[in-house]
Design goal:
Length: 108
Amino acid sequence: MEKNENFCIVYCNCESGENAKIIANELVSDKLAACVSILSGTLSVFEWKGKVESRQEFTLMIKTRKELFDKIEEKIIELHLDSVPEIISLKIDKLHLPYANWMDEELK
Protein backbone atom coordinates (compact mmCIF):
# COMPACT_ATOMS: atom_id res chain seq x y z
CA MET A 1 0.00 0.00 0.00
CA GLU A 2 1.04 3.56 -0.45
CA LYS A 3 -0.13 6.87 0.88
CA ASN A 4 -1.96 8.63 -1.88
CA GLU A 5 -3.52 12.06 -1.57
CA ASN A 6 -4.68 12.36 -5.19
CA PHE A 7 -7.72 10.11 -4.85
CA CYS A 8 -11.01 10.21 -2.95
CA ILE A 9 -14.26 8.34 -2.63
CA VAL A 10 -17.45 10.25 -3.26
CA TYR A 11 -20.65 8.92 -1.69
CA CYS A 12 -24.11 9.60 -3.01
CA ASN A 13 -27.41 7.93 -2.11
CA CYS A 14 -30.19 7.46 -4.67
CA GLU A 15 -33.79 6.48 -4.03
CA SER A 16 -33.97 4.50 -7.27
CA GLY A 17 -31.67 1.73 -8.45
CA GLU A 18 -32.25 2.85 -12.02
CA ASN A 19 -31.19 6.42 -11.17
CA ALA A 20 -28.08 5.05 -9.42
CA LYS A 21 -27.15 3.06 -12.57
CA ILE A 22 -27.68 6.08 -14.82
CA ILE A 23 -25.40 8.24 -12.66
CA ALA A 24 -22.76 5.50 -12.36
CA ASN A 25 -22.71 4.88 -16.13
CA GLU A 26 -22.41 8.59 -16.92
CA LEU A 27 -19.56 9.12 -14.43
CA VAL A 28 -17.55 6.16 -15.77
CA SER A 29 -18.28 6.98 -19.44
CA ASP A 30 -17.22 10.58 -18.92
CA LYS A 31 -13.95 9.45 -17.23
CA LEU A 32 -14.98 11.19 -14.00
CA ALA A 33 -14.85 7.92 -12.05
CA ALA A 34 -12.62 4.90 -12.45
CA CYS A 35 -15.26 2.71 -10.82
CA VAL A 36 -18.63 3.18 -9.16
CA SER A 37 -19.93 0.52 -6.79
CA ILE A 38 -23.68 0.50 -6.20
CA LEU A 39 -24.62 -0.83 -2.77
CA SER A 40 -28.26 -1.75 -2.25
CA GLY A 41 -30.23 -2.05 0.95
CA THR A 42 -29.17 1.22 2.55
CA LEU A 43 -31.76 2.51 4.98
CA SER A 44 -31.54 6.26 5.41
CA VAL A 45 -33.31 8.12 8.22
CA PHE A 46 -33.37 11.90 7.92
CA GLU A 47 -35.44 14.97 8.66
CA TRP A 48 -37.01 16.66 5.66
CA LYS A 49 -39.27 19.69 5.92
CA GLY A 50 -39.87 19.15 9.65
CA LYS A 51 -40.73 15.47 9.40
CA VAL A 52 -38.54 12.42 10.12
CA GLU A 53 -38.42 10.29 6.99
CA SER A 54 -36.88 6.93 6.17
CA ARG A 55 -36.39 5.16 2.87
CA GLN A 56 -34.44 2.39 1.20
CA GLU A 57 -31.67 3.79 -0.97
CA PHE A 58 -28.83 2.74 -3.23
CA THR A 59 -25.39 4.06 -2.24
CA LEU A 60 -22.95 5.07 -4.95
CA MET A 61 -19.31 4.61 -3.92
CA ILE A 62 -17.46 6.64 -6.56
CA LYS A 63 -13.69 6.11 -6.84
CA THR A 64 -12.01 9.12 -8.42
CA ARG A 65 -9.41 11.88 -8.22
CA LYS A 66 -9.98 14.80 -5.85
CA GLU A 67 -9.68 17.33 -8.66
CA LEU A 68 -12.72 15.81 -10.39
CA PHE A 69 -15.09 16.42 -7.46
CA ASP A 70 -16.65 19.62 -8.87
CA LYS A 71 -17.44 17.94 -12.22
CA ILE A 72 -18.85 14.89 -10.42
CA GLU A 73 -21.00 17.14 -8.26
CA GLU A 74 -22.34 18.91 -11.38
CA LYS A 75 -23.14 15.61 -13.09
CA ILE A 76 -24.92 14.20 -10.03
CA ILE A 77 -26.99 17.38 -9.63
CA GLU A 78 -27.93 17.17 -13.32
CA LEU A 79 -29.05 13.51 -13.15
CA HIS A 80 -30.21 12.95 -9.55
CA LEU A 81 -33.92 12.71 -8.76
CA ASP A 82 -33.65 14.49 -5.37
CA SER A 83 -33.64 18.29 -5.16
CA VAL A 84 -30.85 18.11 -2.54
CA PRO A 85 -28.70 15.06 -3.30
CA GLU A 86 -26.22 13.78 -0.76
CA ILE A 87 -22.72 14.25 -2.21
CA ILE A 88 -19.85 13.62 0.23
CA SER A 89 -16.13 13.27 -0.53
CA LEU A 90 -13.82 11.28 1.74
CA LYS A 91 -10.02 11.19 1.68
CA ILE A 92 -8.19 7.95 1.00
CA ASP A 93 -5.28 7.47 3.42
CA LYS A 94 -3.71 4.50 1.73
CA LEU A 95 -4.30 2.82 -1.57
CA HIS A 96 -3.02 -0.41 -3.12
CA LEU A 97 -0.43 0.75 -5.69
CA PRO A 98 -1.64 -1.43 -8.60
CA TYR A 99 -5.19 -0.17 -8.02
CA ALA A 100 -3.95 3.44 -7.93
CA ASN A 101 -2.12 2.84 -11.22
CA TRP A 102 -5.28 1.35 -12.75
CA MET A 103 -7.32 4.35 -11.58
CA ASP A 104 -4.79 6.71 -13.13
CA GLU A 105 -5.17 4.94 -16.47
CA GLU A 106 -8.97 4.94 -16.34
CA LEU A 107 -9.22 8.63 -15.49
CA LYS A 108 -7.19 9.86 -18.46
